Amino acid sequence: MVSALQSVAFGAAAAEAQAVSDEKSKPKQLDAVSVVGSQIAGGGAQAALPVISIDAEQLDATGATDGNELIRSLPQMGDVTWNPTWLGGGNSNAARGDIGSISLRSIGASNTLLLINGRRSVIHPTTATVDGAISTTTYNSNAIPMFGLERMDMLLDGAAAIYGSDAIAGVVNVVTRQNLADGGGVQFEYGTVSGSHREDYQLNGYFGHDFAEGRGNVSVMYNFSHRTPQYFSDQWYTATSGRTRRPDGSLVPGGTDSGLSTTTPYGRFQKYSDGTTTGGYYTVNANGEAVTGARPAVLVDSNAIPGLTLSPGIKRGNFFGNARFDLTDNLQLFGELGYYQAKSKSWISPASTSTTQPTYIDTSVATVPAALAAGADAISISNYLIADGGIRPVRVDNYQTRALVGLRGWTDGGWNWETALLYSKSHADDDMVGVDVSKFVDAVNNGSYDPFNGGGTRTGDQTPSDASSFMVHTHRKTTAELALWDFKINRPDLFSWYAGDIGLAAGVEVRYESLRDNRDTIIDGTYKYTDWYTGTVYDSNFFGHSSTPDSYGSRNVKSAFVEVAVPFVSADQHIPLVKSLDVQLAGRYESYSDVGDVAKPKLALAWQVNDSLLLRGSVSEGFKAPNLELVNSSVLYRFNGYDDAIRCAALVAGASYDDYLSCDAANALPGTGISQNYSVRSVRTGNQELKPELSKNYSYGFVFSPDFIPDTYGKFSFGMDWWKIEIENPIGMLNDQNALYYDAYLRVVEGSYNPNVVRFDPTEADIAQFSGSGLDPVGEVNYVNATYTNMSPINAEGVDYTFDWRLRDTAWGDFSLIINAARIKSYTQDPTVEEALIQSAIDAGLLNLMISSIGATNLVGRYSANVGVKPEWKASATLVWKYDNWTVRVRDQYTDSVVYGLYGDGSDFVVPSTQRWNLSVKRDFTKDFLNGFSVEAGARNLFDKDPPLNSSGDYLASVYEPYGAYYYMSIQKTW
Q1: Per the UniProt record, which residue ranges are transmembrane (predicted)?
Q2: pLDDT for 383-411, tens place per residue?
Q3: Most buried residue, 239, 351, 392, 929, by CB count within 10 Å?
């Protein structure tokens, strides 16, 4: 929407960029001319590059207010796994706040390179375990200066030979406005979500100024925005955790225990004497009396706790300026300066005791119920919701800076050259409130806090106790830096031969990258928790948060590239069916201070059959260096819920259940004793022996722009590009769930065990569970060892479609229709040795698991915990009509169905496809005192469709926004 201001304010600049007066009547040649993907200005081989350019008109039609919403609207972009609604289970291991990831072709958020005006951007400083089981990095789309965009170019091809590391899936180049003529503009915009507390207020503006008789120019764009939070209570499908599915798949909200939490103000307690448990579980009733049983009478509806936010309130400011000054006729000084800052605030659930860190209470405390104190010297407390501490604030302040200064020049011999120095930095401070374990235990043991008073409801605690003594703030401070110097030369006519001019570009680049993660002392092992009863020392002294040490890494990268554009056939040769044939050859060498050297080539071909038909194709190799945390981290601890498959394998073998599915369903219910699914600690270590990920990229396609259709029908272009990406050495690890499956395989089939799955000694209950199964009893999992390593290859392929129709200067105005569609045909990863063995046992009927396949299954259109959601089809259609001073934009966005979860009978649950419409109407005023004013009103998701839900009744946060219609209006003035 902010680009509406640009459409008016920068009209002169846009027209100037068209270069010739009759360009207005031509359609945009789909991807035929673009800078991104080539360093040779104007080279004919650029037609070989599959590039989609999103101009200001199309940006405005999306109705997006920030980068997160924009990226979601583009069909070639994958699911947005990093987003403002992602709170990471209430701990700072997640990258929270004003964040949005970028993932071309759904290959992963760390496989797309982001450029600003052709040079790298700094990454978001906070890593997170997403897009697989490893800590990954991404660029922050919300830091993109949307209000100052001229266009966004997406190179849908491997580009490591031109730009270096990270460009495996492609490149996104953000092109900002430059050389704005004297004048300025300002826009105020208001937006609101239907039936929600969310409101948006934005102030956007620009100004430009020429000086020194036109030899210099300064152009500045700015944005200030304020967004109020959206609450869980705002939408029916997020307002409650207690919901389930009817047999026909329809949702039943409320009234069931499905989805409710057994972590409650009633807690769960167990008696110990001399370090050994003396019996089963207890809970407390509404009167504070201890009663036997692991399941309290009242469960907690986590989503219904008042005041919890689904997406945070955000205050954001973004400034971007550029300048140039002609020192001589052949020498220009130029620069950029950017600053982005965002402050977000969320409210998350009350803290709770940790299921993986036992906490013991002294039975001599007066508040301990008599039934718990009898015959015990300590009581373990678990599943206790510390509702007295209230809902907790999470504040994330992050900023990003960018400063660039450079020189460019032109020699009399025809050479163009450019050099620049760039420094960019990003920083985030995640501040959250939680519970200091040591202080909590002290407060309970000295009687100042009473966890046994009961009185809990589904949304809180009606018998408050003072929790202030152990509620503390923690900070996670992360910083990323990028410093870069480059020097580039190019000449489109290095020399001529029979088919035309041969172009050359070459350059060198030196860059420095660093990444720092500074954890709070209560989490990084500095301030430890020592259990008074067992003497066990825990590195984390913070409930609900695994211990994570500080980490720091840096590297230096030296690189050089060369690119050649060679014409083999020209129109002057009059060869039938070959109007022109151009080839791009490129290669880049990069030397890393920590992971070695790598060199990668690229070959691209553009065959202009005639004036209407262009055929193109490319083959290239790419690479991505391991991120600095994976190389430099010592030990990371993470907790997630997994199926301990050997348990149901034993129960099925012992005839307690007919099959694994029925066993898993029964043991997943609260209060049934030993559970099949529980929280497991993963111990992950960095690896300095990691190799760069390598890729091979293939693409071929055509662009058909019929010149035989009369201009009265407009200009048409249709393009299609098939692509395939093969990634070797992808960095990952055998995920914890598959490690547990492998442990079950070894125990059931081979009579051994997985040494990376470390277990506690079996209890009496464990021994009873394995009785009659023929399998040796095992205890619960203590932890799973995992090391980051280079895994088996990933293969992905798909097809992109584009259609462009433009009709100008008719009696009814100007029309344009742009259709953009992306299909992912397959995404597979070859199984590891362990996964192959598991699969062979499943196929042979030796291992009875809930899954039927593991490893190389095509994950397109099917949710996977490792790779997220990849709909097979995504598409958009944008229609723009301009008549006199009116502009009407209509946009349709389609997202395909996906399989996400199972029905009760084990069959696939299909999340339906969606189709959402946007509409906006704009009026420009040109007379009298209203001259320069414009007003616009519009709606995103015009027909107020809710997002589709999965089998658990949850919306797909990485694919859809958690609301229906969004309405907005703006007023703007230019001068």
Answers
A1: none
A2: 899 999 999 999 999 999 999 999 999 99
A3: 351
